Amino acid sequence: MSVNDDQRGNGHSVRFDETVYTDGDQSTEKIPDDNNELNARNRLNQRRFSRRSSILKRRVNTITTSEAPRVILSDEGLKGGRVSPFTNFPFFLKMTVRSIGIVFGDIGTSPLYVVQTIFDSPPIERDVIGAIALIVWSLIVVVSLKYAIFILIADNRGEGGPFALCGLLTGQTSFLRNRTKQFVSIISILSACLLIGDSALTPAVSILSAFEGMVVAEPSLSPWTVRISVIMIIILFLIQRWGSSRLGIFFGPIMILWFILLATIGIWRITFKPSILKAFNPWEALHYLIRTKKTGFYQIGSIFLSVTGLEALYADLGHFGRWPVRFAWFALVFPAVLLNYLGQGAVIIVDSTLIDNPFYHAAPEWGLWPLLVFSVIASTIASQAVITGAFSLVSQAVAMGYCVPFTVVHTSQSIISHIYIPAVNYFLLALTLAVTIGFQTSDNLTDAYGVTVCSVMVITTILYMMVMRYSWSNPIWIVALFGIFLIIDLYTFAAICTTKIDSGGWVAIVIAVGLFIFSFSWYYGNHCLRLYLSQNCTTNLIEDLPKRFGIQEFHQTDEENNDEDDPQSLTDDENDERRFSNRTDSNEISVSIIENHFDSNTQEDSPIERTEICFTKGVGCFLSTSKKYTPYVFETFLRRMNASQEILIFLKLDYARIPLIDDDQRLIVRKFGQNIYHITTIFGYAETNVNLFNVLHLARQFYDIPITEDQSTITFYLPNETIHVNTKGWKTYLKRWPLYIYSVLKNLYPGMPLNFTSIPENTIKIGILVDL
């Protein structure tokens, strides 16, 4: 996406060569750059399709420079998913520092509690080396190889997480069948719910483990551990409204110092027992599992805690981009945590009685309190990874129709993925407080921690293998080779389920199942609603309205006829034709807002039935999701009332991936017959107040649409679906419960367009009884 700043005097305008989101279809396409190819395709499409509409040319700008809002251009200029050290190195470094503060807090504070949970009694030296070897090779194989190198490749428009894989598998480039795509969607919803369920445990275990270090320094402070932890958790969630960009700037340098401290302590302790370096030998890890048998198998659950945070790492991909995350991991985070684990192993070998808290025992006595203070700060920051990951997951779920449309606040005008969702934030706060008060200690929490993360890890591996085969068309032998990671994941999953579910892991599972019930109900209800509307509600071509009404049709001028090759004039069907002819470039759509076009080719149409209606004074504005068809609300109103306002406007809201749009570049207006218009209005993602009166005011100023300034003559028509659940027959029993939940959620969240607020005194809601 690019935004060009054309300075006309003191003004700013935007020419679009960027991606545009639409309400009705979130898939995108890319229009070829080759003019000859473009003209040839346009002529072919003109022979196949006919339209009787014109995209009106904009008048000379009647808004002065001082009145036109200034476009806030990105001071960083790149989308998070495309940040690269080869294109913008200063920006890359900035994003790397921020990613250290946001993404790696969870995995970077795991040394606080991992090693102490492995052993129940003082171990011998070779057992310590074997256990530390398992940690070392978990970091190398699972995090470095599988996630940092392979999984991060699978981004969907720069975003990561289970919904990114779902988007790749259910998109146009996927070769899966429709039924399989639906199954993938449901599994992705389950995966996201499991990850959010784990988000309630991560802040609790990180902050509790840090404050428990006070007990090592001063045992009398033990009763205050939970109380202080609760206060820190509340503060952590309250500052989320600042956004991940500001928090990253603040947290990044702190976490860099934390990782340097981890590495320093680790190196210092390794010098006391260099034999711990045998942990780099993979045979030590494998031999430990073979030798200890059941004991080693049960310890896998504790060792897995060293890699928790890797799913948050993938979910946070859209906040910073692939290259900053990779560079931060390999250059700083990975060496630091690796050295610290080795140092803790050396401490236990020297004195096996220190297994109660080897992290704090590794520090010198004079540095215990400074380390404790730093640990508290770092563990508080550590929770940021799962919180921002939850925001990203819910935002993607809302965009894909898998979740209730919560309010999404964009906290950055430079990077679209920096968001804050108040409802999710306070929901996680309540869950985290309940878990902290309920479990009391980090030891109790670590017994429950990791079940849902490991489940998500297994699902992610399976979905990634499907992406490799059905979206990227990789050979089957490459997919099978990647299956080695799946074997490791399943072994870990079996060990965790055996040891952790009974000891508290069921808590995260219950949270995840509860979230899944609501998310699945919304997904299933929307699917049934779309199916019902397609079967029971009629829509017609907008271009047929003049004949249906028996009014004068629109005729093009010579000036308009000269612009016949503008791609913006393509209909939805023509766009579909182009979309399938450009499957390999289906990630972006190029839109020109300034140049306009009219297609003069016509052909004989099938007979259209005349509709006898009465015209009344005023303007009727119907919200639409199509550029070609009338909304079903309009057809319902016409059928019931046999009347219409003398001026008809079909309004479609689109959203661009830039923060703000200049008003003189906001509209695309098409005219169908006399006083029948279709307006596409484009808003930036940071524009949070969509005023429909202002849109119509701009249309009158720029395109001479006959709309009066008297707002009382303008009426907006919105849909109002009432869900009725069918209870006839025993076969409907299984689908009743999600539809009952959906009907309640639909009443609470009717699904109006993003950032749109209706005007009650000028709004009529057209009801429809949906029998599901």
TrEMBL record:
Gene Ontology cellular-component terms listed: membrane
Spans annotated as Disordered: 1-36, 556-581
Molecular function in Gene Ontology: potassium ion transmembrane transporter activity
Transmembrane feature ranges: 128-154, 183-201, 221-240, 247-268, 296-315, 327-349, 369-394, 415-437, 449-467, 474-494, 506-525
Biased composition (Basic and acidic residues): 1-18
Membrane topology recorded in Swiss-Prot or TrEMBL: Multi-pass membrane protein
Signal peptide: none
Predominant cellular place of this UniProt entry's protein: membrane
Residues in K+ potassium transporter C-terminal domain copies: 618-770
InterPro entries tied to this protein: K+_transporter, K_trans_C, K_trans_N
Domain of life, source organism: Eukaryota
Subcellular location field: Membrane
Keywords assigned by UniProt, alphabetized: Ion transport, Membrane, Potassium, Potassium transport, Transmembrane, Transmembrane helix, Transport
Compositional bias (Acidic residues): 559-575
Limits of the K+ potassium transporter integral membrane domain: 96-535
Protein name (record): Potassium transporter
Organism: Adineta ricciae (Rotifer)
